[in-house]
Amino acid sequence: MSNRNLLIIAVSIALGLGITTRPDLLSNLPQSLQMLFASGISTGTIAALALNICLKEED
Protein backbone atom coordinates (compact mmCIF):
# COMPACT_ATOMS: atom_id res chain seq x y z
CA MET A 1 0.00 0.00 0.00
CA SER A 2 1.39 3.38 -0.98
CA ASN A 3 1.92 6.37 1.30
CA ARG A 4 -0.80 8.20 -0.64
CA ASN A 5 -3.36 5.52 0.17
CA LEU A 6 -2.32 5.38 3.82
CA LEU A 7 -2.68 9.16 4.09
CA ILE A 8 -6.17 9.06 2.57
CA ILE A 9 -7.24 6.29 4.94
CA ALA A 10 -5.76 7.97 8.02
CA VAL A 11 -7.28 11.39 7.34
CA SER A 12 -10.69 9.92 6.51
CA ILE A 13 -10.81 7.84 9.68
CA ALA A 14 -9.58 10.75 11.80
CA LEU A 15 -12.21 13.13 10.44
CA GLY A 16 -14.96 10.55 10.80
CA LEU A 17 -14.03 9.79 14.40
CA GLY A 18 -13.55 13.46 15.18
CA ILE A 19 -17.05 14.35 14.06
CA THR A 20 -18.47 11.36 15.91
CA THR A 21 -16.82 12.31 19.20
CA ARG A 22 -17.15 16.11 18.87
CA PRO A 23 -20.39 16.90 17.00
CA ASP A 24 -20.33 20.44 18.45
CA LEU A 25 -17.65 21.30 15.88
CA LEU A 26 -20.41 21.56 13.28
CA SER A 27 -22.50 24.08 15.21
CA ASN A 28 -21.24 27.09 13.19
CA LEU A 29 -22.00 25.53 9.80
CA PRO A 30 -25.22 26.16 7.88
CA GLN A 31 -28.00 23.63 8.53
CA SER A 32 -27.56 21.92 5.15
CA LEU A 33 -23.86 21.27 5.78
CA GLN A 34 -24.58 20.11 9.32
CA MET A 35 -26.92 17.47 7.92
CA LEU A 36 -24.31 16.40 5.36
CA PHE A 37 -21.43 16.11 7.83
CA ALA A 38 -23.40 14.96 10.91
CA SER A 39 -22.48 11.32 10.37
CA GLY A 40 -18.87 10.23 10.78
CA ILE A 41 -19.34 7.83 7.89
CA SER A 42 -20.43 10.55 5.48
CA THR A 43 -17.65 12.87 6.67
CA GLY A 44 -15.01 10.18 6.20
CA THR A 45 -16.37 9.21 2.80
CA ILE A 46 -16.42 12.79 1.53
CA ALA A 47 -12.88 13.33 2.83
CA ALA A 48 -11.66 10.14 1.14
CA LEU A 49 -13.25 11.09 -2.17
CA ALA A 50 -11.85 14.63 -2.04
CA LEU A 51 -8.35 13.45 -1.16
CA ASN A 52 -8.46 10.76 -3.83
CA ILE A 53 -9.22 13.43 -6.43
CA CYS A 54 -6.75 16.02 -5.11
CA LEU A 55 -3.76 13.76 -4.49
CA LYS A 56 -2.48 12.52 -7.81
CA GLU A 57 -1.37 8.90 -7.96
CA GLU A 58 2.27 8.34 -8.85
CA ASP A 59 3.02 6.17 -11.85
Automatic annotation (TrEMBL):
What are the transmembrane regions? Answer: 34-55
Transmembrane helix among the record's keywords? yes
Q: Which residues form the signal peptide?
A: none
Query: Single GO molecular-function term?
Result: xanthine transmembrane transporter activity
One Gene Ontology cellular component = plasma membrane
Transport is among the record's keywords: yes
Protein keywords: Membrane, Transmembrane, Transmembrane helix, Transport
Q: Which PANTHER family match?
A: PURINE PERMEASE C1399.01C-RELATED
What protein family is recorded?
Answer: Belongs to the nucleobase:cation symporter-2 (NCS2) (TC 2.A.40) family.
Official protein name in the record = Xanthine permease XanP
